[in-house]
Each structure stands twice: as structure tokens, then as C-alpha cells.
Write a structure and sequence with these properties.
The protein is α+β, with helices and mostly antiparallel strands. The chain contains 8 helices and 21 strands. α5 crosses α6.
Length: 381
């Protein structure tokens, strides 16, 4: 969608940063969680290099928050996820999975704990507000569930910390990976977390007053000028390098955590009650029939990420699909995530990828493709 075609109607919401993103060069948008999200600030490869060498500012207000409060908030949040939250401290964040009664994945949000009985779920692209409110109706728990006036920005890249110090002072360096603080900037109320969807050092800045969106954007861009900060969009190249999921592409309601290699986020050995527990126990006992893998595709550099699922073929049989694929200019390889039958998921296995009018050789490899120990995001500052 180009900037002359913005008007889908009032059912597609604009973020508080919409005018600023257009002013700063956004020329293409898509829709995510019923909102516009900037997807085009020019060359995606330039956006990638800006991210890994300097810093980019991304409008991710589409990461809507589900706010859960009330006397039973902690118990209710545990009901939504198979991850054990018993050690989640106030001020801490955790990456969690939300599963349905069959163990299928509904979302993979970041959970933020702002107070004893105050939580946010920072969402991927699916309607968890409706799910949570529906679950609450029959839960017997005393909770209040709303979508608050909260709109995140992502400031990502190695120089993000330098920009944050200009904005918030040296104290911000004490903020640890997957922790948050509540703060203000020029009387603009914020939550700041050391998180982000980039696999790079970065921060998410949660605006708590939508009327201040363009003011906040300009403040950050001004602070970042001497550090080569550029407006940008979430980088498909970098997130695939990092093996990060994109909901609806790499996972959906028919995908379970074990197929994604996310056993660490599923705790079945304690007394926690959560939706999908019985199903996940059975899936673990029975074993999975397919698994997510990394793939290197042997062909000329892909000009664009895939927009459809590409069949994976072995000995003439369809054994899976490529879910996300892109050319990495750093690795100088076509890299992809795919889901494949368990019999064919061994590293080193050679397969064919059917891409529209061509079929190309490919090899199963370990994922993620870059920085597997997350030393970049988790480093001490």
C-alpha cells in the first residue's frame, strides 16, 4: 500500500505516530492488529544496515496491550500461558506463549509486570483481548481486562543505548535485559523496557498518552541525530537471522510449542493450571510429527521475502513448507524458516524448495542463523 492509498476507513486505526512516520519518509504500510504499521522507509537492506550498525526508530503501536488487573490478576495470567510465572518479579518481562485448549499457539507476546496485580501482554498479530475477556467470563476470577491507551515504539540497534542516555540519563544503563521501568520524558508518561523484535540491543518505549505520539517521536529523533538514528521498520532480514517468530507466518493456531522447539516455555511438571495443559501433556508423550527448522536456499539472492508458503519437496513428496525467507546481505545467503516432517528435519538434509516457477536446492541447518546465544541483546552495558 502506498501513501496515496491510506484510506481503508475508520475500522483501520492509525497509530499516535502516524503523521510523524509519513513526515519522516514512510511510503508503504500494512495492517497488523487492525492498525496501520509502516513497512517501507526505502531500501530494506539499508534499513537492515542502519539497524545493525547504528539505530532505527520503529512505530510498533500495533503491538497492542492487553491490560490485566484485579485481585486475581496473577492467577489469571498464569491460566493463559504454559510458562511458569511463579518467579516473575514486579518490573520484569517474560516472553510467553498463549495456547488454546488443544495446545495450539494463539500468540507469543511479551508479558510485563508493572505491579503486584497489574500486567500487560504486548501482542503479536491476533485478537488476544477478545480471548482473554472470553476466558475471564467463565474463570470465576476477579479481574479487569481492557486495551489501555498504550502505544510502543522500538528504538533498536547498537547505538540505542547512547540515545537512551541522552533521553533518560546514565541511570538507564542499569536497566537489564527483559526488565522495565515506569518514567516520564518532558511530562510524557512512559514505560521503558529493554526488549524488542530485532535480535539487536534495543528498547521499547511504551507511550501512555496517545495525544503525545508525534511529540515523543520528534524528541527521540532529535536525540538520535548525532548517532545516525534513522526512521525504520522491523527488519525481516534481522528477525529471520535471529530465528524470531512472525505469528501467522511461522506459527498459528494449528502449531504447538514443541513443533517450534519452545519446550523451555512449557512447564508441565508443576501444579499450575493453564489452558491447554492436558493437550500439551499428550502431545509431549506422543511426540511431534513435524518441526521448525532453519534452511539455506541455494539460488540467486532473493529480491523480496516470500509472500506465500513455498512447498518443501523430498523424493517427489511434499514434506513441509517454507514460512519465512529472505536474503541476508551479511551472511550472503538466502535464509529461511520452515516447518518439516520429523523424519526429514535432520541438519544437513538436502531438500527442494518449489518457488513459483522454479525449484531450488536447499539444506536444513541449525537456527538461529546469527548470534545463537543472544550475546548482542543480553550484553552488559
Amino acid at each position: 500500500m502506498t501513501n496515496k492509498d491510506f484510506g481503508f476507513g475508520t475500522q483501520i486505526r492509525k497509530s499516535p505516530y502516524f503523521d510523524s512516520t509519513v513526515k519522516w519518509g514512510a511510503t508503504g504500510f500494512s495492517v497488523y492488529n487492525h492498525m496501520y504499521i509502516p513497512r517501507d522507509f526505502g531500501d530494506p537492506e539499508k534499513n537492515f544496515w542502519n539497524l545493525i550498525n547504528d539505530a532505527i526508530l520503529c512505530d510498533v503501536a500495533v503491538e497492542r496491550q492487553v491490560e490485566i488487573t484485579g485481585p486475581d490478576a496473577a492467577k489469571f495470567v498464569q491460566l493463559l500461558t504454559p510458562r511458569d510465572l511463579s518467579n516473575l518479579s514486579i518490573g520484569q518481562c517474560k516472553y510467553v506463549l498463549i495456547t488454546n485448549n488443544e495446545g495450539g499457539l494463539l500468540n507469543d507476546p511479551v508479558l510485563l509486570r508493572l505491579a503486584e496485580n497489574h500486567f500487560w501482554l504486548s501482542l503479536g498479530d491476533s485478537d488476544i483481548l477478545l480471548w482473554a475477556q472470553g476466558v475471564a467470563v467463565n474463570s470465576g476470577l476477579n479481574v479487569n481486562i481492557i486495551e489501555p491507551d498504550v502505544s510502543p515504539l522500538q528504538l533498536q540497534g547498537p547505538k540505542s543505548i547512547d540515545i537512551m542516555k541522552v533521553l533518560f540519563g546514565h541511570e538507564i544503563t542499569k536497566l537489564k535485559y527483559y526488565w522495565l521501568i515506569e518514567t516520564e520524558l518532558n511530562d510524557i508518561p512512559l514505560v521503558v523496557s529493554r526488549t524488542g523484535w530485532s535480535s539487536e540491543l534495543g528498547y521499547e518505549i511504551y507511550l501512555r498518552d496517545g495525544s503525545k505520539g508525534n511529540e515523543l517521536w520528534e524528541l527521540i529523533m532529535k536525540a538520535g541525530k548525532k548517532f545516525n538514528l534513522e526512521p525504520g521498520h522491523t527488519s525481516s532480514i534481522r528477525r529471520i537471522e535471529g530465528g524470531m517468530l512472525s505469528y501467522h507466518a511461522d506459527a498459528d493456531i494449528n502449531t504447538n510449542p514443541f513443533e517450534l522447539g519452545m519446550e523451555r516455555l512449557v512447564d508441565l511438571s508443576n501444579d499450575n493450571e493453564f489452558i491447554g495443559k492436558s493437550a500439551l501433556i499428550k502431545i509431549k508423550e506422543k511426540g511431534i510429527k513435524r518441526k521448525q527448522v532453519g534452511i539455506i536456499i541455494d539460488c540467486d539472492p532473493l529480491k523480496n521475502p516470500n509472500t506465500i508458503f513455498w512447498p518443501i519437496i523430498k523424493d517427489g513428496q511434499n514434506i513441509g513448507k517454507v514460512t519465512s525467507a529472505v536474503y541476508s546481505p551479511r551472511l550472503k545467503k538466502n535464509i529461511a524458516l520452515g516447518i518439516i516432517s520429523i523424519e526429514n528435519c535432520e541438519v544437513g538434509n538436502c531438500v527442494d524448495i518449489k518457488m513459483l516457477d522454479t525449484t531450488n536446492k536447499a539444506t536444513i541447518v541449525e537456527k538461529p542463523f546469527y548470534d545463537p546465544k543472544k550475546q548482542i541483546t543480553n550484553k552488559s552495558l
